[in-house]
Amino acid sequence: MGKFDKSTGLSTKEIGVFKHKIKNEIGHLLPELPDHIETRLFLQGRDAWTYAWNLLNATIPIRENDLVLIEVVVKLKKEFHCQQIKKCSKYMCNIQRRKDMYHPKLSVTEIIV
Q: Fewer CB in 10 Å around end: N or C, the chain?
């Protein structure tokens, strides 16, 4: 496993777009916190989850037509462990780059641990 950073051959902007798209997709799959907590976090500009990114591609640098394989581990922050929800999830993400880097083809699958 490798770090998901500029050393992969992807630009900083492209990595940022990929992370944003993945977070949005995973956000729909994560359990929800009570409304009053979600509202407070939104107003503070925070999130209840932390994300760890692992690049699974065998070839580095990543070439233009390569499929980008990323493993994402999402953990609930300790301050929210009192909630009765799942505290950790793992996802496999496949990203196919396109000419328009803001609209990559994305597939997210939860890995049962």
A: C
C-alpha 22/C-alpha 92 separation (Å) is 10
Four-point Cα dihedral 89, 14, 66, 75, nearest 10: -10
Mean pLDDT of 87-98: 90
14-43: per-residue pLDDT in tens?
888 989 999 999 988 888 888 888 888 778
Task: List the structure tokens of 41.
Answer: 């976090």
Phi (first) and psi of residue 93, to 5 degrees: -120, 130
Binning the chain into helix, strand and coil, the percentages to the nearest 5 are 30, 30, 40
Angstrom distance (rounded) from CA 106 to CA 102 = 11
Flag whether pLDDT at 76 surpasses 80. Answer: yes
The structural domains of the chain, with segments of one domain joined by +, span 6-111
What's the chain's average pLDDT? 84
